[in-house]
Amino acid sequence: MGFWKSLFSGSQASPSPSVQIDAPAVEVSGNFNYNGHKSSESRIFFSTDREIDLYELEELCDAVGWSRRPLRKVKKALQHSFLVISMWEERGSVRRLIGFSRATSDHAFNATIWDVVVHPDFQHQGMGKALMKQVIKELRSQDISNITLFADPHVVDFYRTLGFMADPEGIKGMFWYPSR
Length: 180
Ligand SMILES: CC(C)(COP(=O)(O)OP(=O)(O)OC[C@H]1O[C@@H](n2cnc3c(N)ncnc32)[C@H](O)[C@@H]1OP(=O)(O)O)[C@@H](O)C(=O)NCCC(=O)NCCS
What we know:
The chain is α+β, with helices and mostly antiparallel strands. It is 26% helix and 23% strand. The two termini are 21 Å apart. 22% of the residues are buried.
């Protein structure tokens, strides 16, 4: 978790997005239960619209214990991401942000997934898997074939279930941090 947090607070150089992938919202299929409520009362859907209420996103990140990040930097990160995917629960006229992820990319070969999060009320019901599958689907639809991410130690198995491999062919992720 610490690693993930510190990465987010660092600068993320990425070209301005020239590829528009603001697709219509996609509904998640399947029956999801949470907090004892039946899903028939609500609808869960994905959106690639990056105009997300930053306070709502902050609340979601607070809910999983991530440390707060300067909102002006979060805004910039969203603007310069290649892909932003949010997952929403809609109950009547009320929409709630329940999941989020984004990816940066060179727009040709590579993309890196960041900030994968599902609200605790909705975890362990296949939502994280559905979110990741949607991210991969969107990236593949842009002909991106090399998809990477940085997994916190406690979620390595979560990503393994989705087909991600640690250190393929012995390749190691290497990091540079400014000296203090
Ligand atoms: C990691 C996270 C996104 C998973 O979301 P989720 O909705 O609970 O995951 P799912 O219910 O879709 O689980 C999918 C599969 O991964 C497994 N899984 C889920 N969380 C896991 C974890 N922390 N460790 C190992 N396996 C996990 C599930 O058992 C499930 O396996 P199955 O398909 O064989 O049943 C969610 O727990 C979360 O937001 N955590 C806090 C933020 C975080 O740590 N993000 C990752 C930063 S690298």
